[in-house]
C-alpha cells in the first residue's frame, strides 16, 4: 500500500478562499500531491490527464455547474470520492446519493476520518506523513464560508 505522502487527491471547489484553506489542510494531512480545480471544465481536464487516489468534490460549483460528472468518471476509475455541500445530502440529485458525503462547513477531523476509512490507512500513517512535512496543527474547520454550495 502506498504511504499517504505518495497519494494524490483531486479537490474541486469554486470558492477561492475555501479552496486555498482546504488545499493547505490536505497537504498538512500528508497528501503528496493536491490537484485542485474551480470549474467543471478544469476538473474534467485533470481527470482525463491524471490518476488520483482520492477525491473531494464540492457539489455546486456556481453558475449552474455541478461536479456530478466528475464524480461519476472517478467512480468508473475506482477512485474513492466524497461530495461536499452546504445542502443536506437528501437535497442533491439522485446520481450523487450513493457517494460518500460531508456537509459544509466541514470539520477537518471528519475529513481525516473519511480519508482513513476510504483509503484504509491508519491515523499513525497520517501522523507520520504530517511529521515528514512538518505540518502545523490543523484548524478545526476547513472553511468558515457560510454560503451553501
In short:
The chain is α/β, with parallel strands linked by helices and 149 residues long.
Q: From the helix content, strand content and strand pairing, which structural class follows?
A: alpha/beta
Rg, rounded, reads 14 Å
Shape: globular
Average pLDDT rating: 85
Tell me the helix content: 25-40%
Distance between the termini: 34 Å
State the CATH class: Alpha Beta
Oligomer: single chain
Enumerate the strands of the largest sheet in spatial order, edge to edge or round the barrel: 2-1-3-4-5
Name given to the CATH architecture: 3-Layer(aba) Sandwich
Secondary-structure element order, N to C: EHEHEHEEHH
Task: Examine the coordinates and then state which fold CATH places here, giving the name of the CATH topology.
Answer: Rossmann fold
Strand tally, please?
A: 5
CATH superfamily: Response regulator
Total number of domains: 1
What fraction of the residues are assigned to beta strands by DSSP?
15-25%
Amino acid at each position: 500500500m502506498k504511504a499517504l505522502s505518495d497519494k494524490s487527491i483531486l479537490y474541486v471547489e469554486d470558492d477561492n478562499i475555501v479552496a486555498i484553506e482546504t488545499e493547505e489542510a490536505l497537504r498538512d494531512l500528508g497528501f503528496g500531491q493536491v490537484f485542485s480545480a474551480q470549474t467543471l471544465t478544469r476538473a474534467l481536464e485533470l481527470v482525463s490527464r491524471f490518476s488520483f487516489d482520492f477525491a473531494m468534490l464540492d457539489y455546486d460549483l456556481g453558475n449552474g455547474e455541478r461536479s456530478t460528472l466528475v464524480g461519476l468518471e472517478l467512480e468508473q476509475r475506482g477512485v474513492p470520492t466524497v461530495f461536499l455541500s452546504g445542502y443536506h445530502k437528501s437535497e442533491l440529485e439522485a446520481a450523487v446519493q450513493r457517494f460518500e458525503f460531508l456537509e459544509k462547513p466541514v470539520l477537518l477531523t471528519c475529513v481525516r476520518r473519511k480519508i482513513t476509512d476510504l483509503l484504509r490507512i491508519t491515523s499513525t500513517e497520517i501522523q507520520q506523513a504530517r511529521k515528514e512535512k512538518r505540518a502545523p496543527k490543523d484548524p478545526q474547520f476547513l472553511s468558515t464560508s457560510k454560503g451553501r454550495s
